Amino acid sequence: MRRVARGDRRAFEELYRRTSPWLAVRLRRRCADEQIVAEVLQETYLAVWRAADAFAGAAAGGSAVGWLWTIAARRLIDAFRRRAHHAAPPAAAAPAHVAPAEEAVLAGVVGDEVGDALRLLAPELRAVLQAMVLDGLSVRETSVLLGVPEGTVKTRARRARIAMREALA
């Protein structure tokens, strides 16, 4: 990221080569519209190129991939909002389960009991936790991303916390 921040095109190309397939898969899991996915990818990498010097994770031990996903998730929310003003909302991919890469991250971050409890959650509850906890989205952003009212997001988040508490008790 430091090299990208200094304007190193080769470093940027390498970042794109390494991360764009993974990022595209994650975006497709949240949006079935290929045009929106392509737009979000382009906007994300443009934002990274322009603001790589703003990445503070290197000093704080943060993840560049996490920063990249945060940018992409916010751009996806923005794309949904833009489309909502001009046409019907885009078809959202059904979040049937957590992506394998996310499961690997969870396995490394949380113990087996927590991972098992997450896998036992109903898909709609897991999707809310995924958006709010893993992706760091707000209730409003999660609402837009999942295409459900904010009240539903809050209810599902509460139900997910209760289910997790019971599973871990």
TrEMBL record:
Residues 15-84 form the RNA polymerase sigma-70 region domain. Pfam families: Sigma70_r2, Sigma70_r4_2. Residues 113-163 form the RNA polymerase sigma factor 70 region 4 type domain. The keyword DNA-binding does not apply. SUPFAM superfamilies: Sigma2 domain of RNA polymerase sigma factors, Sigma3 and sigma4 domains of RNA polymerase sigma factors. Coiled coil: none annotated. It comes from the Bacteria. Transmembrane segments: none annotated. Keywords: Sigma factor, Transcription, Transcription regulation. InterPro entries: RNA_pol_sigma-70-like, RNA_pol_sigma-70_dom, RNA_pol_sigma70_r2, RNA_pol_sigma70_r4_t2, RNA_pol_sigma_r2, RNA_pol_sigma_r3/r4-like, WH-like_DNA-bd_sf. The keyword Transcription applies. NCBIfam families: sigma70-ECF (TIGR02937). Belongs to the sigma-70 factor family. ECF subfamily. This is RNA polymerase sigma24 factor. It comes from Lentzea cavernae. The gene is rpoE.
